[in-house]
Write a structure and sequence with these properties.
The chain is mostly beta strands. It has one domain: UDP N-Acetylglucosamine Acyltransferase, domain 1 (3 Solenoid). It has three helices and 22 strands. It has helices at 16-19, 23-28, 30-40; strands at 45-48, 51-54, 58-59, 64-65, 69-71, 76-77, 82-89, 94-95, 100-106, 111-112, 117-119, 122-123, 128-129, 134-135, 148-151, 154-157, 165-167, 172-173, 178-179, 183-185, 190-191, 196-197. Strands 1, 2, 4, 5, 7, 9, 11, 12, 14, 17, 19, 20 and 22 form a 13-stranded mixed β-sheet that branches.
Length: 200
């Protein structure tokens, strides 16, 4: 089953470079894939230190961008945010104050509010993650760290030891919710405030 689960099933108009990949392969290969996107970025991007930042993007003082980071048009990264491990923001995406975002793709119009952690994940278009949410990426509590989980009643074996989740377009994650490593959410999914989702 895992081979048939591609990003394009959950995200409308995903770029061809990503659309046909499984979510966990896209995140595990994020540094390489994002570095290629940076190489192809046009003259409307400022390129330095392995990053590409669109001329209309805003990066507030105190934000840390560890390459490779790609910030598309009209994106915003707030004060105290920490981006690492390969981060890609499509147009109009926002990362709020004091968030940590690791090895993650954010599609157009997605937002992560302050004090959240998002690791090895993919946020579709128009996704909203409220404050203090945790999208975990690593099974610290298990001896076998490989990520497996249930999706529509079937066991998905990813073959990787770090993967957070994929949130389909227009999904919502409430404040202080926790999503355990390994989860796929259909378009328009809602994770309530303080909810724990663990599909292991």
């Amino acid at each position: 089953m895992s081979a048939s689960l591609t990003i394009g099933q959950f995200i409308q108009a995903a770029p061809p470079a990503l659309a046909n990949l499984t979510p966990w392969l896209a995140t595990s290969d994020a540094p390489t894939l994002i570095a290629r996107m940076i190489e192809m970025a046009g003259d409307d991007f400022n390129k330095s230190n392995g990053n590409a930042i669109h001329k209309t993007a805003q990066v507030e003082a105190g934000a840390v961008l560890k390459s490779p980071v790609y910030l598309g048009p009209n994106t915003m990264v707030a004060h105290g945010a920490y981006l690492r491990g390969g981060v890609w923001l499509e147009r109009d995406a926002i990362i709020g104050p004091n968030c940590e975002v690791k090895t993650t793709y954010m599609f157009a119009g997605s937002k992560i509010a302050h004090l959240s952690f998002v690791g090895d994940s993919i946020l579709g278009r128009g996704v909203n993650v409220e404050a203090g949410a945790m999208l975990a990426n690593y099974r610290n509590e298990k001896a076998d760290k490989l990520i497996t989980f249930l999706f529509k009643g079937e066991r998905v074996v990813t073959g990787v030891d770090k993967f957070g989740c994929l949130l389909g377009d227009n999904s919502r994650v409430g404040a202080n919710a926790v999503i355990a490593p390994g989860a796929l959410f259909e378009v328009g999914s809602i994770i309530k405030r303080l909810q724990l989702v663990d599909l292991a």
